[in-house]
Task: structure prediction
Amino acid sequence: MPLPSVRPATLIPANSMASRSASTPADLSFAQLLRAHGLRATAQRRAIYSVFADAASADAANAHLSAEEAFQQARVQLPELSRATVYNALGELAEAGLLGLVEGPGPRRFDANVTPHHHFRCRCCHELHDVELGNVDVTLRERGFHVESSHVLLEGLCARCAGDAPAELP
Ligand SMILES: [Zn+2]
Ligand SMILES: [Zn+2]
Result:
């Protein structure tokens, strides 16, 4: 019976931590994530970011909050938070690329989903829903346009407001 070949120890990389560099941000602790973006993990930032993490875990395609909404929810965890602190921290998290930004109509929203995507806005309840439109800028590029950023906003009624939401399962 052949024995498994034993590789010489010298083939093992001297710095075994190097193999961890492929981990995604989701694998890192919140403190590491913030540090990687040049920010200290303060209790305030942690409370504000967790509001978005909670919204994303409840409905990943619908985690968009205005600064005021984020303030009201973060204050539940950390009652001493001031509005100014929350507004500043939201700006810092967005600048660091940890939150996305969606400009109006309506108040500017912060987005837990930081991968490129588009939105559907319900004109009745004003909720934003993430939409994937894969080839919208590719089509323009093929026609010779230099696309520098893209955000498509579709508007109408969400299923709930249109009154045709799927029936709840018994
Ligand atoms: Zn709606
Ligand atoms: Zn979004």
Remarks:
- Residues 122, 124-125, 127, 157-158, 160-161 surround zinc ion (ligand 1) (CB under 6 Å).
- The two ends are 59 Å apart (CA to CA).
